[in-house]
Amino acid sequence: MISTVKEYLEARLEARANVAKIILSETDDQAKLLASEAADIALKGMVRIGAKPYAAYSSTILSQMGLELASQEKCEEVAFITPAVLPLDDAALAVWHWQQQLDDRASVSGVLNHLKEEVEELTEAATAYNEAQTLKTRMDISSELADIFVLAFHLSALLNLDPAQCLAEKLKVLHERDYSGQPDEDGKIKHEEA
User: Fold this and answer.
1) Does any domain span residue 188?
2) What residues make up the domain containing 24?
3) pTM reported for the whole predicted model
4) Of the four, 3, 56, 95, 98, which is 20 to 30 A from 21 by CA?
């Protein structure tokens, strides 16, 4: 447990050393140089996963500078995070651009079936994370959640819906509902019926 500035700084220094080891193990000299220059820029501070603190680095920056994701995953003492750099509209556009490679083969029913499958995988990942809050289980659940987002944006494109507008309209409805009741036997918190 980090409780003092000294412990925090020591944890950061240890994490930097761990990242340096990974960078030094890279075979591409140019990638080594760029990734080492990016490491200080990419350090985002600390993140807590379960009870264990990790130094958090921006996966996006280090990847862009040449440190492969596979190399990042070798370093279990450091959390590599992908910060939310895409506003909702930009994220949707990025997915829509990606889905064009599917050549109109995707259908609403196909995406819905895929979404059901991914929800099951998210459930498994969440269960694993609840049982053991490790860096690996956190990365797994992050990946499964991203699959859900991608499919939701894909579905919105197939249905010609604006996800930001859908969300804004739903949030307005949610704020008007009464959620003061207790969770049901499945743990769901539902709104009170009017």
Assistant:
1) no
2) 5-81
3) 0.61
4) 3
